[in-house]
Amino acid sequence: MKKQVKVLVIVAFVVFQISVFGQTLNENLKFLEPLLGKNWVGNMNSPDGKKSFKVTLTYESMWNGTLVKFSRSNPELDFYTEGYIYWDDEIQKSFLFSVSSKGGAEKGDVSFEEGKVTIKGNLTMMGKTFDYKNTFEFTPDGKMIDRWFQNAFGPWKAGHVIEFNRAN
């Protein structure tokens, strides 16, 4: 009887861990696994390089792995974004959409290109819509490099580069 109770406790613990902390991703979203289960913390520099602002990213699998929810937080600038990445059967691509605390909205295709998670889409912010590209590269030492490119003011230009570390 004691052995059966132990087995039930172990099974219950394992099921709880799997359901809460690690859902198997949809096969088409597996390339996002390096993002999941971590709080990523980095610093974004102001355009003039004189100030630095803390940025936190989180990614979590939801709905039995059919969706990845993400949030981006920059409290010093009072800027927050939440969004989702999912596999769209109709267009046969991973797709992202998000909204920000400053009224911005973005949508785009998400893929794995040249060893990086890559988002290509458009962003509407402050009444202006423009194209952007955002890449996330994972280094051998466990860091994530976030690079931003956009054409909001004419030709394509590089924007921020943020080196993220895992906070947990």
Strand content: over 45%
What spatial form do the alpha-carbon principal axes imply?
globular
Q: Kindly provide the name of the CATH class.
A: Mainly Beta
CATH topology: Lipocalin
Percentage of residues assigned to helices: 10-25%
- The largest beta-sheet arranges its strands as 1-2-3-4-5-6-7-8-9-10
Largest sheet: 10 strands, antiparallel, barrel
Q: If you had to describe this structure to a student in words, what would you say it looks like?
A:
- The protein is mainly beta and 168 residues long.
- It has one domain (25-166): Lipocalin (Beta Barrel), CATH 2.40.128.20.
- The protein contains one helix and ten strands, in the order αββββββββββ.
- It has one helix at 2-21; strands at 39-45, 52-62, 67-74, 79-88, 93-100, 105-113, 116-125, 128-138, 144-150, 157-166.
- A ten-stranded antiparallel β-barrel has the order 1-2-3-4-5-6-7-8-9-10.
- A hairpin with a 4-residue loop joins β5 (93-100) and β6 (105-113).
- The model is unreliable at 1-21 (pLDDT under 50).
Topology:
Layout: H1 2-21, E1 39-45, E2 52-62, E3 67-74, E4 79-88, E5 93-100, E6 105-113, E7 116-125, E8 128-138, E9 144-150, E10 157-166
Antiparallel strand pairs: 1-2, 1-10, 2-3, 3-4, 4-5, 5-6, 6-7, 7-8, 8-9, 9-10
Summarize the structure.
This protein is mainly β and 168 residues long. Helix content is 12%, strand content 54%.
Key terms:
mainly beta, disordered N terminus, Lipocalin, 168 residues, ten-stranded antiparallel β-barrel, single chain
